[in-house]
Amino acid sequence: MTSTIRIQAEGFEIAAEAAALTTGRADIGAVIAFTGLCRDEGGRLSALELEHYPGMAEAELARIAAQAEERWPLMGLTIIHRFGKIAPGEEIVLVLTASAHRRAAFEAAEFLMDYLKTHAPFWKREHLKDGTVGAWVEAKSGDDLAAERWA
Amino acid sequence: MKLVYFAWVRERVGRTDEDLDLPDGIATVADLVRWLKGRGEEYAYAFENEAIVRAAIDHVHVKPDAPVLGAREIAFFPPMTGG
Fold it and tell me: What is the pTM of this model?
């Protein structure tokens, strides 16, 4: 299976990443793309800053991807997560899953995002419109519940 | 042993990483946290709610009862908020 995992400061092109999964293949029947974007939280934020644990972030995403590969008949998988300062409207994360049929691709993409949010070592901090540095974003219990349903 | 800290745990401790010689009797991550809390106010503040702070040994998530023997790098950080 084609598996791509990247952690990078720069943005990404969804169409190019999807093409990289499917080009030259005729067996893939479904590609699901999830893109997570930076919100401005009602005009409050100038940016989100993403800190990560280099080394572990890559390792943990690889472990999560391996679990998805074991559970669903995937033909391709891409995870890209950005770090650094990200402006509202810009993308933070991309998950692509490819399979012969849609159900596996949908389910695997949801699983990947649920696990990524609760297990991958990334932390968000708010930067406010008035130029000050805001609070660290708190983890949501709903995210833990979302991840637990796959156990 | 190398310790690394992230996000508000890093800010409270006041450093990104450090190399420490652990005294005898520290068998688990929980033992290590207890020892760190006795080292100064910054550690006591970072670990004031021990149940919240997460740990990883050599890039793998671990629970407080995980043994520290043989660990190269132990990380402490808040619950994750990526994605």
Answer: 0.96
